[in-house]
């Protein structure tokens, strides 16, 4: 059996699903997909992924609106992969978010920019150039 990525799934909690979807679609340049919650207790919009290839090379995840859970900074930080994180960084403010720390080197692991979305969640974007 091939090795799997340690992270199997992530949720990014939101208050305003439409606003959050518009933000991430604008910044990342991908369309999100409605995902049915089997419990019926939340709204979910999934980040695009190929489930077969992602089992080894990445994590699947979604924006989630659920009673009793609040978005905000200080929790888990999700990093999105990019060809050049400065491209997505340039779209963050126009999409309604904030750049917390502009693109900076992380040595042999490439570059990172740290941002805040329209819901107050912090996230990173990582690239090799």
Q: Could you give a short description of this structure?
A:
The protein has 129 residues and is of the alpha/beta class. It is 21% helix and 34% strand.
Q: How would you describe the overall organization of this protein?
A:
It is a single chain. The protein has 129 residues and is of the alpha/beta class. It is 21% helix and 34% strand. It contains three helices and eight strands; from the N terminus they run E-H-E-E-H-E-E-H-E-E-E. It has helices at residues 17-28, 51-57, 85-92, and strands spanning 9-13, 33-35, 42-46, 60-66, 78-81, 98-105, 111-116, 122-127. It has a four-stranded mixed β-sheet. It is globular, with a radius of gyration of 15 Å. It starts with 8 loop residues before the first strand and ends with a strand. The mean pLDDT is 87.
